[in-house]
Every structure is written in structure tokens, then in C-alpha cells.
Amino acid sequence: MKTTLLTSLRADATALRTYVFAALFVAGNIIGPQLAHLIPGGGPMLLPIYLFTLVAAYRYGIVAGLVTAVVSPLANHLLFGMPSEAMLAIIFTKSILLALFAGYAGQLWSGKARVWHVVAVVVAYQVVAMPFEAMITGSWAMAVQDIRIGWIGLVIQVLAGVFTDLLRKS
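^ thats the sequence. predicted structure below, dont judge the formating
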């Protein structure tokens, strides 16, 4: 019997392992940005808040990705004041979109991902989020900052997605 997305979501939402792994990915999304900010301009350049969200969703499903996407920015904000309150809506939007796209792609291409699959996920969440970021900030320059300045972080996200899928095969 073929597993549908809805059946998979229902099972993931009740599985303890989903929340255990989500907690680990949230911890990664708390530690990663702190390390990235040790480098001048490291946050906008490396986009660390999205990395573990992509891996959580791609490998462990949409529910793990959504938990990571929502809890990580909120925990970082409450603990360290970063991202700023003004940026939270943008970070939430991008993180949630990334979790949805990566979770769906992970289920669709499980164990057989190619680089272009992960590139499609990263491009999709960025392109869909850009108009929202432009509306919130009032600036298209801010909306394309992840591509202009954060291209290294986007490449790291693609490599992390491919590596995650390689681990799934073994």
C-alpha cells in the first residue's frame, strides 16, 4: 500500500522520534547561528538558521521540519535577541516554506535525490518568500539579500540536503 502525504504527516505528528530529532535540530539551529556570528557578517552570509530545518524536514519529514522551523528562530530570539523582532516574520516565513518544500521533496525523492532536487527546494523557498520579504521590509534589495550575500549559505544548504540523502541510502 502506498503511503500518502496525509498518512505520513499523521504518523509523523504522533511519533516520539519526530520530536526527539526535531529537538536535536533545534539545538543545531541554536548553536549554528552563534558560531556563524563569530565571523563578521556570518549570519547573512551563511544563513545558518535554515540549515537544520532543511535537514530535519528532508530526512525526518514535514512535521520535524515545521517544529524546527518555528521553535528555532523563537528560541534564538528569546535566548540571544537574534533574529531581531523585526526579522522574525521573515525568518518564520522562509523557515516554514523550507520545511514544507524539503519535507515533501524528501518523501518524494527518498533515497534517490540528485543535486538538482535539493537546488529546486532551495530555489523554491527563496523565490516564494522573496515577495513576502519585499512587502515586509519595503525593499527588494533586502528580499534578494539571501542570494546576493548568502549564496555561500545556499550552497551549504544544497550540499547538506544531498549529504542527508546519501546517509539515508546507507
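The CA atoms of residues 90 and 132 lie 8 Å apart.
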